[in-house]
Amino acid sequence: MSTGAxxxxxxxxxxxxxxxxxxxxRQAGFDGELTIVGNETHPAYxxxxxxxxxxxEGDGMSSHELPPAGHAARELLGVHATGLDLDxxxxxxxxxxxxxxxxVVLATGSRARRLSDLPEEFTLRGLDDxxxxxxxxxxxxxxxxxxxxxxxxxxxxxxxxxxxRVTVVSQGVPLIVQLGPYLADVFVKAALDRGLTxxxxxxARLLGRDGHARVVLDEGAVLEADVILTAAGDVPNTEWxxxxxxxxxxxxxxxxxxxxxxxxxxxxxxxxxxxxxGLRRVPMWSSAIEQAKVAAWALIRGDEAPPLRxxxxxxxxxxxxxxxxxxxxxxxxxxxxxxGVAGGGPALMRWSREDxxxxxxxxxxxxxxxxxxxxxxxxx
Length: 380
Hints:
This protein is of the alpha/beta class. The protein folds into 3 domains: 8-111 and 234-304, FAD/NAD(P)-binding domain (3-Layer(bba) Sandwich); 114-230, FAD/NAD(P)-binding domain; 313-374. It is 20% helix and 32% strand. Strands 3-2-1-7-20-19 form a 6-stranded mixed sheet, with helices on one face. A 5-stranded parallel sheet has the order 9-16-10-11-12. Helix 1 packs parallel to helix 6. The model has no long low-confidence stretch (mean pLDDT 94).
């Protein structure tokens, strides 16, 4: 199809994917009318900080703040996109506004997957969630967190550091699905040493009684606490695209440049892009940034733009441990220690493959990410 003139671009979503797309469009030479739509009233912020520093820092509360944007876009905040007309090239908002576009970036991200409709169920997805949880932690409540993945464990670490009694309910060993058994064991030991209680179960559900939520385990046991928080994954925000046919199985499939079609890009948590394992969503901060950069260039340059060459990068801080990992997680078996030793202190590790490539992990070890990436190559 012909994409025609390029005078107006609408970016739907004001998270890191939308922000990066807008900045990159300007860097690619687009000097036309740029509009960003965001359903939150806050300017773009660092989502990873919400489950890390923001729960603990002092009155300044600046860890989530990002540098001022340089894209000079018109920002429409606190409004939701409700529809997309591909033929007329219009984005419809919940206040009745219709925004015409020549190109559009779909970056509406995802929301927390809830386990109930109970108002007592806390989730941590946005800045308002983090501020509400931070306020509750001031009284040092007892906390039960359902979900033993990275988010649940980061929140548990913050709650413990705030002086709370914390229990994590996990399907199997916490973090084992994401990191593999070797690294999961390192983190679980650190968590237990700091006072975390871990309850493993096949499944858990929430029930309400007298204005309080309770966690009911698969075995029938019931856990109660002052704060019940769930960290059970995310749900892509694709409902507003229902009439377009763009969403499939809860995500928007894109090509290697992040395009659905020449005038439509989809980036961030709602996009499924080609990987060696097929089309996949990779709902991570670094992934959203890299997707958005590639897609913005593609909207301007088309096939002349370079495709996405994504190399997974994962970072977490919890229980006194800081981990950076480049490569495909989870990791099986034991690593070779490039520097440091098992059982204590900073360590630089590598898991090798038969072709000579590998996966690199830095644990409490200061190393620039580009150097960590180099360690994954053959003969590193």
